[in-house]
Amino acid sequence: MRWFLCLLLVLFILTPKTHAESDKSLIVDSAMCSKNNIYYCSIQEAIEDSDKGSKIQIKGDKYSERLRFDTNNSYLTLEPLDSAEVVISQPADKFIQQPLVHIDGAKFILIQDITFEDSSPCDEDYTTVVITRNGKATFANNRFVNKLNPEENINCVNKAGFAIGEGSTQEETLLLYNLFRNYPTGVEVRSEKAVVSSVKNNYVGNKSSTNNPVFKKGENSFFKSIKDSIVSYNESLS
């Protein structure tokens, strides 16, 4: 009997980890995922396979996909795996006017040190990132880049980098040390009752900022704190 228990222990140690046994640290690596099943091929796949408190670490690369966090995807962290840049861009498909990131009721999402490139055309209600159904999130040290050229963008007065949608009333949304590049509106609160806890040290580089609001809010909503955020346009901004 003892030898049988020893054999089971050896088999357990030697068996490769599956996604479900990821110890709350999930690694996205599109180059390695086909060779080893401990890696995920897409960020959304990792989000859907995560548990509460999971950390999703992304290998430096460019990922063409949209991210959605619903009520089953709360208490998650998204961040780069290493020092290489992580870029998330819009897929060129029939859903191109959907948000690049949609936090739909998920709570306490942390997204940091990622570049979001958005080439979606102008639309009255479009935004790169949207929070709905009282989702709660912190975005820190990210770059949001509107890829439309400045000539097209001047006439695109409603496109926002970040928006809190209708019906949201959350207070825990934090925007810290982000760059919004080439957006007519940087941050918009569309809900009439939402409260944004803190908008601090963000840089909104925007050629049309003299004509359009960079921080825009609903009639009864407000930013609890807007501190040290800079609004200007700089052609050489990287």
Multimeric state: single chain
Question: Reading side by side through the largest sheet, how are the strands ordered?
Answer: 2-1-3-6-9-12-15-19-23
Classify the helix fraction into a percent range. 10-25%
Q: So how many helices? A: 3
State the domain count.
Answer: 1
Radius of gyration: 20 Å
Describe the largest sheet: 9 strands, parallel
Summarize the structure.
By secondary structure, this protein is mainly beta. The chain is 10% helix and 36% strand.
Descriptive account of the structure:
The protein is built from three helices and 24 strands. The protein has about 240 residues and is mostly beta strands. A nine-stranded parallel β-sheet has the order 2-1-3-6-9-12-15-19-23. Strands 4-7-10-13-16-20-24 form a seven-stranded parallel β-sheet, with no helix packed on it. It has a six-stranded parallel β-sheet with strand order 5-8-11-14-17-21. The C terminus is likely disordered.
Strand-helix topology:
Elements: H1 2-14, E1 25-28, E2 39-40, H2 43-48, E3 55-58, E4 61-64, E5 67-69, E6 77-80, E7 86-89, E8 101-104, E9 109-112, E10 115-118, E11 127-132, E12 137-140, E13 143-146, H3 150-154, E14 160-164, E15 174-176, E16 179-181, E17 185-189, E18 195-196, E19 198-200, E20 203-205, E21 215-217, E22 222-223, E23 226-227, E24 230-232
Parallel strand pairs: 1-2, 1-3, 3-6, 4-7, 5-8, 6-9, 7-10, 8-11, 9-12, 10-13, 11-14, 12-15, 13-16, 14-17, 15-19, 16-20, 17-21, 18-22, 19-23, 20-24
